[in-house]
Amino acid sequence: MTATIGVFDSGFGGLTVLRALLRRLPQARFVFLGDTARLPYGSKSRRTIARYAAESAQFLVREQGADFLVIACNTASALALDAIQDAVPVPVLGVIEPGAAAARAASKSGDVLVIATDATVQSHAYAAACRAQGLRAIEKACPLLVPLVEEGWTDHPVTAEVFRIYLDELLAAAANDSLNPDALVLGCTHYPLLRPLIERTIAHRAPAGIQVIDSAESTAEMAVRLFNGPAENSAPGAPGRPELRFFATDSVDKFERLGSRFLEQPVKGVELIDLGG
Amino acid sequence: MTATIGVFDSGFGGLTVLRALLRRLPQARFVFLGDTARLPYGSKSRRTIARYAAESAQFLVREQGADFLVIACNTASALALDAIQDAVPVPVLGVIEPGAAAARAASKSGDVLVIATDATVQSHAYAAACRAQGLRAIEKACPLLVPLVEEGWTDHPVTAEVFRIYLDELLAAAANDSLNPDALVLGCTHYPLLRPLIERTIAHRAPAGIQVIDSAESTAEMAVRLFNGPAENSAPGAPGRPELRFFATDSVDKFERLGSRFLEQPVKGVELIDLGG
Fold first, then answer.
1. 20 to 30 Å CA-CA from B70: which of A62, A135, A241, B106?
2. Is A188 considered catalytic here?
3. pLDDT tens digits for B161-193?
């Protein structure tokens, strides 16, 4: 039997994680749910995020038969991983731990920067995960980056200026704490679309070099290690052509239109579901 | 008996409308609901917005005894005014019609610009309301302005640059249609906080002059005309000290912290409610 991997995000940013998974597990069956009616999670409270995420996880497991869940949303991973694990009887992988593990592999100084949404930063989940890896982390909320990506300004002077401001504040905070950061974790699934702009800005502002960590890639790598057993034992359906189903709780048109940018292939046939609320 | 006026928004931007109402109806009782667990409405579909708004309106009328409702949210007014009117047995006033009426009073050329969220613009509710007033309107979605206001960058060079880009696109579209706009409607309750920046930018880019229309003010004026009867007949409680209750569906702390900027007075004692979802 082919393994079914459920991938969940509050929106479609998590399609960057799905893209990384597709490259590594081409024979799995993927079911992606974007809880778009209730996004963004990044500005909401832990209690609300936990309820939304648990309901979404239950849909993927109970109604879509997911054997594993990847929580492709930093905010839900940071604030609701426990709640999701309690809500469903299958293994659940979030994006925080793989991001921190990749930062440890990349950092020589042991000091890392993390950019994320308000809620992710306030949870200090990255700081805790980095500490568990023996790293010191400085986190910063960058609430303008998601709307800039969604406006399509991924290579725009305004976005470069906004990121420069955020980066300078981060570097000043690091200097203030006598830290010497050499890695920057992209703690939001929207941010990989800004990676070229981020790397250009870093080259100007931090000439000593800061390596950019895309937690979508590191999460997919960890998922492969965890899930490969069942996937390898599966009967290949059509090799190299994974099965894909998309669900959203709102605005299928917008999901298909914007989602394609994140998945880097057309997103079609998105099905509208109602999780109540 | 004192009239109870229910004021509803998806978030706290509608506090700019409440502020305008408070100045004009100091003896009324106000109940404000921010459906913050489900914001922003601006990027969601009509069906979802209508359901959320109807549930919120029912809370204000059935549970809080509101005699009138002011929908202090452009998106809900644009997409869900009918659904709200069907859901509750009291008079309901949105912000679109008052904004269009104020534009008619201000415009000599009959050509007006409207800036708003994605969903409000896609509904073309302002264009229709302006047409009913004999005006021609060009609408533009400005999705970055709300996050910039919420970041607190109301007087920031980045915000000025973003607004300049949006304004230039609007003026180019107007010129392309041979229109000669002399009024700009702020079609989102967050935008009044940008009014000084918007007026400065207009002075540079449109020297012939464009008058800025704050629909919060025009809505409050229309509310006074509609609701003044019951309010005038009411026994004054404490003159000049209106009764105020605040409800939110999420993150009371954030509501109190950010809300004070919009109301221009402290927002305290916000009560958390659950509308399901």
1. B106
2. yes
3. 999 999 999 999 999 999 999 999 999 999 999
Q: Which residue has the tokens 């597709």?
A: A22
Return d(Cα A124, Cα A137) in angstroms, integer: 10
Hunting for tokens 């590191």 — which residue is that? A218
**Phi, psi of B229, rounded to the nearest 5 degrees:** -45, -70
Task: Name B245's bridge partners.
Answer: B31
Active-site position among B70, B73, B84, B100? B73
β-pairing verdict for A29-34 and A243-248: parallel
Q: Are residues B146 and B237 in the same domain?
A: no
B69 found inside a domain: yes
Residue A133: CATH number of its domain: 3.40.50.1860
Residues of B in contact with A161 (CB under 8 A): 157-158, 161
Q: Which regions of chain B does DSSP assign to beta strands (E)?
A: 4-9, 29-34, 68-71, 92-93, 111-116, 136-141, 183-187, 211-214, 243-248, 271-272
Per CB distance under 8 Å, which residues of B are interface residues toward A? Answer: 36-40, 43-45, 48, 143-144, 146-148, 150-151, 157-158, 161-162, 165, 249-251, 254, 276-277
- Written as one string, the DSSP assignment of A198-263 is HHHHHHHH-TT--EEEEHHHHHHHHHHHHHHHHHHHSPPSSTT--EEEEEESS-HHHHHHHHHHHH
Say whether A161 and B158 touch across the interface (CB within 8 A). Answer: yes
